[in-house]
Amino acid sequence: MSFAKEQEPGRLLDLFQSIQDPVFLTTTDGVILDVNRAAAAALGKDRDVVVGAGICQIIHGGRWPHIECPLEEFLRTCGAKSENTRLPGLGGEYLLIVTPLTDPAEQVVAMMLQARKLTREEALQVETIRTAQLAAIGELAASVAHEVNNPINGIINFAQLISDDAAAESLQAELSGRIVNEGERIASIIDSLLSFARENENEFGDVDVRDVVKECLSLVDHQLRKEGIILEQELSEKDCRVTGNFMQLQQVIFNAINNSRYALNERYENSSPDKKIVISCAPFEEEGYHCIRTTVRDLGTGIPQGILDKLFEPFFTTKPKGKGTGLGMSISFGIIQNHGGTLTIDSVLNNYTDIVFDIPRAGTAQGDRNA
């Protein structure tokens, strides 16, 4: 018998099922006790398949063992009062209202999760908050990077002097060489930090995003073929001009392709028909907003939807230690924001990842930086 039926048969169940928004009843550990029809429809799954499963598995498609699902953590820690959070998944971005259900002794016995899809205006407000947070982090990053930059360059130079004076193949030469290598690695991270924090100083002009894509692909084509990665291009024949900076947009596409390469190589050791990257670029319009939409899709490892929001946080990376700094997506996010656009990521674990960035079309009100 379902959780709703146990509480009060008949009318309570009818009310539960008549709610237009998706509603989930779960334990505090995230095990689903019941769902209404709207939730089952949004999931595209039968109720019998959903009940008894974990909320992260059903909504996000699962997670990696070394990364905790933020939704599961939220359910365990939200306390006895109703709270709101965001819910990536269910085919869109949702506001999630979490209401603890208590017994006569005021003990929390279950959680009710009601999901409401965000409007475009609400989604833009979320982006504004995220941009402000990244700007604050950028100021801190720039301050730290400047403070560390000079000392680390001094360490590298002194270690190089010791290395130059050391006998070949001596312990002194080996250790000083290691200091130089590790110092240069730190210097590379600092450079990425400064790129993340740096204000745009480059000129903007008319840029055809298709030309940016073609230039990037010409530079990585050999590496993709070497790794057995199939490349598909879907470039519109219509005008795809934006007001922007060619080199910065190139950096965004390079970063997206490199992330896709890593995911594909992790999932497919050898060649496969599904080991491919699909890049598309075309005009897009929604609610009077005219932009050029560029999508980089791969069929690699995918990303748990529960952590998609964290991908834009500096130093957050899904890669193993030493494989990435966690700054690539943060830098890309800042570049696209500086172009007046938006960058989003959609992914399903072990299925696909879409990196999508929209930039206002040149000649539109949104695309005029001087408007």
Describe this structure in words.
- The chain is an alpha+beta fold and 371 residues long.
- The chain folds into three domains: 3-118, PAS domain (Beta-Lactamase, 2-Layer Sandwich); 123-197, Helix Hairpins (Orthogonal Bundle); 205-360, 2-Layer Sandwich (Heat Shock Protein 90).
- It is 44% helix and 23% strand.
- The chain has eleven helices and twelve strands.
- It has helices spanning 3-7, 11-18, 37-43, 47-50, 55-60, 70-77, 120-165, 171-197, 209-226, 246-267, 328-338; strands spanning 23-26, 32-35, 83-89, 92-102, 108-117, 205-208, 230-235, 241-244, 276-286, 289-298, 342-348, 352-360.
- The strands form three sheets. A five-stranded antiparallel sheet has the order 2-1-5-4-3.
- Helix 9 (209-226) packs parallel to helix 10.
- The longest helix has 46 residues, at 120-165.
- The chain is globular.
Question: What's the gist of this structure?
Answer:
By secondary structure, this protein is of the alpha+beta class. 44% of the residues lie in helices and 23% in strands.
Compile the SSE list and pairings:
Elements: H1 3-7, H2 11-18, E1 23-26, E2 32-35, H3 37-43, H4 47-50, H5 55-60, H6 70-77, E3 83-89, E4 92-102, E5 108-117, H7 120-165, H8 171-197, E6 205-208, H9 209-226, E7 230-235, E8 241-244, H10 246-267, E9 276-286, E10 289-298, H11 328-338, E11 342-348, E12 352-360
Parallel strand pairs: 7-9
Antiparallel strand pairs: 1-2, 1-5, 3-4, 4-5, 6-8, 9-10, 10-12, 11-12
